[in-house]
Amino acid sequence: MFEYLLAAPADPILGLADLYNKDERTNKINLSVGVYKDETTKTPILESVKKAEHLLLDDETTKSYLPIDGVNSFNIATQVLLFGSENQRARTAQAPGGTGALRIMADFLSRRTKIKRVWISNPSWPNHRSVFQTAGLEVREYRYYDAQTRSLDFDGLMSDLNQVIAGEAVLFHGCCHNPTGIDPTPEQWQTISELALKNGWLPLFDLAYQGFGQGIEEDVYGLRLFANNQPELLIASSYSKNFGLYNERVGAFTLIAADSEIADRAFSQVKTIIRANYSNPPAHGAKIVSYILNNAELKEEWIDELTGMRQRIHRMRQLFVKTLQDKGANQDFSFIAKQNGMFSFSGLTEEQVLKLRNDYSIYIVNSGRINVAGMTIDNMSRLCESIVEVL
Ligand code: PLP
């Protein structure tokens, strides 16, 4: 049965990580994969996480199954982080990472509602299209990025979203849009929310970088506006980046319905989706998050560590812009200092990206997306000299 199968193309981002690992040149720089790196280019385990793990190992008395929707204290803490307090119209299920939460969202829409079409931004994280299509939904794109002005194409976005009809869904990045690093302003979120209400389509949020933009509260401005204004909303949130728990696979799926009774009924359907997929989630990562968010001292330490990660990225953005200028770049890169989160659309062409990879051992995704967290004070000079040479 299998000899007919053709080899699948390598994942555009993870495939690049393989190439980077095989590259034997000593001065290589990796700005491709989407993980945080510290000043020594390591992806650290947070101190707050280590402390929570010690407590957890001491306290743990059983490895018995979790409920289908996971650790209850984790789900409540997730709502507090998302909305500022528990939300009576919301129900949350712990999920295996943000991707697992997106897949629950996609399966729920495809198999339990009448929705057939989901709109995603152009560009977006490539897995958005894969997850929704694999669940059987049609994916359409709305305009998002204006390459000329290197900013949000808000007119294009509004004109495309004006075509969305009731019974369709639209996915937004809660903050730190991947790959552009450009988010709507509070006024723009308001305008989009009014359009959703007027035309009756369902908003979806993917929140993978809470705390990496301006701060944990600031980064959910748009999400909270929608949670207050819209009768229905679905959210996939991830703890991979903001707790550095990438390989523990910790995320959450949250459903908001018009009232508490409808939320209960809809959520019972969500649980049937989970049961038929992975039955119930793994415990360790979610318990770490729950220990931290439910302990005032650990929570404060985590917020400090998250602030440290955010500020380091911000410093690298500024240093990158300045160093490019100092090295004589013939283009203005100041837009990079204004973007949010780990990623920037650098504006480098595919040809320039390939030259950087082959001749300078600098790894950037073909689209020109750079992970600013891969930059350090040590590699900045060589990085910027190389970019100026290929410009
Ligand atoms: N959504 C976006 C926009 C992302 O960038 C990522 C990870 O890169 C995810 C979701 C998935 O996160 P997780 O690793 O928790 O599945």
From TrEMBL:
PANTHER family (alphabetical): ASPARTATE AMINOTRANSFERASE, ASPARTATE AMINOTRANSFERASE, MITOCHONDRIAL
Pfam families in UniProt: Aminotran_1_2
NCBIfam families (alphabetical): PRK09257.1 (NF006719)
InterPro entries: Aminotransferase_I/II_large, Asp_trans, NHTrfase_class1_PyrdxlP-BS, PyrdxlP-dep_Trfase, PyrdxlP-dep_Trfase_major, PyrdxlP-dep_Trfase_small
The protein, known as: Aminotransferase
Enzyme class: transferase
Quaternary state and interactors: Homodimer.
Cofactor(s) in the UniProt record: pyridoxal 5'-phosphate
UniProt GO molecular function: identical protein binding; L-aspartate:2-oxoglutarate aminotransferase activity; L-tyrosine-2-oxoglutarate transaminase activity; pyridoxal phosphate binding
